[in-house]
């Protein structure tokens, strides 16, 4: 039984390694600054719930979170719809020139965002999108398309073609075949797509750093950066900000964790 | 997440002979293109066009403001070859990619092996190990900046608690350690993904083969090396690509924790590109650095796709 015990010891060590930093920061969010300095690791003696309220209002976290939700509300459906359409066509029919189209999309998967960010920044500027919500939303949608198209294509390819053909014989148009028959069948893929894109969008950092520099456009990720700049000595305030930013996504994760983990593995394996 | 690859299409026996497909092939073709068009249009304008533009910009000395871009040929690349900071950034990137990939791979494989038999509490372990993966980089960055803080961080206090107080330092402020300190944070955040991929792959390993090997007297290491590893090969390839590609585009954690400093000791190609193009308005030169990043990423991805195709055969 010793191997079994030592196995649990190692597993538990890593459990602590992954969990402790968060517990530490969350508990710091409820302490005063003097308490953080005096006793960084103890639990808060008298929880300062006011810290969270301060971060929400004074730290403008309410605004930042609202922006993050707004970006998710536009980017996730945007990428999903476009990727489903393209993935469907590329996965279920042999279009002349399909190889080249796939090659083009594949290129977008292989190169990092940093490869295109310099010219893209000036493109967004020249299109007069800089300083508006669209300046963040549109490039984010474009950035998700390559991966999304390939992901959805791999799901549509697995559907039997006969189903669509049967509907066509009954006189259904191409749009009807897609929206009423094929798309509902690809639902597992759709869920994966939405979960992954939600996570990418919630976490995006460089795009809002470039295109959302305006105070009013900042999502949580870059918002915290500026927040730290302003309150660099106010540790309880920073901890409160981190808590506000991490708790919503962790709650979503815990509720939907099966989809997150399956999505990430199947997304990677596809 | 840059791992989706083209797999060769399975033979399509009887596909195009279906009656409906024969009935109106032109109609289906047109609608097929119409389905692709919206995605392609957005993608072409915001991804492909900038990609081509980056080549053009790298041949100019544009500063982002001048109305005319002056063509200077390979001037930027000549400058690049003689730029010691560029070579340092490239070197840091290589350290990052090699060390980071090896470390994340070793730890995640170890953890996946330990939960192979799905012991009690498996779901809890998996949920927690995967958690950093879903958090924004900014949170990972702040949490680790706190851990490394010389004033109140866990690391230094822990070291002095076990009598290693002389080792303590401001980890992110020390040019000799900053790169590794940020790398550890980044690895910590990526282990979860590699772990779940390995866990899924191990679930499919043929137990009969293992039992046979055990009966034949193979030791634990031999069983791991000769029975488990070969069956994991595609998962190993996949995780390698993921980590390599992530490694070359590393930016977020570095930017949040050190911004490339101190003394450029954590400067990577991506951060150097950002600094040149957006902070110093050296746009042409920034584009040239980003082109190096493009080529490196393409070479790595294509090499791995090749390798994988050969493995499949």
TrEMBL record, chain A:
It comes from the Bacteria. It is a multi-pass membrane protein. GO terms for cellular component: plasma membrane. It is found in: Cell membrane. SUPFAM superfamilies: MetI-like. GO terms for biological process: transmembrane transport. Signal peptide: none annotated. Belongs to the binding-protein-dependent transport system permease family. This is Sugar ABC transporter permease. It comes from Actinoallomurus iriomotensis.
Automatic annotation (TrEMBL), chain B:
One of its GO terms (cellular component) is plasma membrane. CDD domains: TM_PBP2 (cd06261). Residues 90-304 form the ABC transmembrane type-1 domain. Keywords: Cell membrane, Membrane, Transmembrane, Transmembrane helix, Transport. Its main location: membrane. SUPFAM superfamilies: MalF N-terminal region-like, MetI-like. InterPro entries: ABC_transporter_permease, MetI-like, MetI-like_sf. It is found in: Cell membrane. This is ABC transporter permease. The lineage of its organism: Bacteria, Bacillati, Actinomycetota, Actinomycetes, Streptosporangiales.
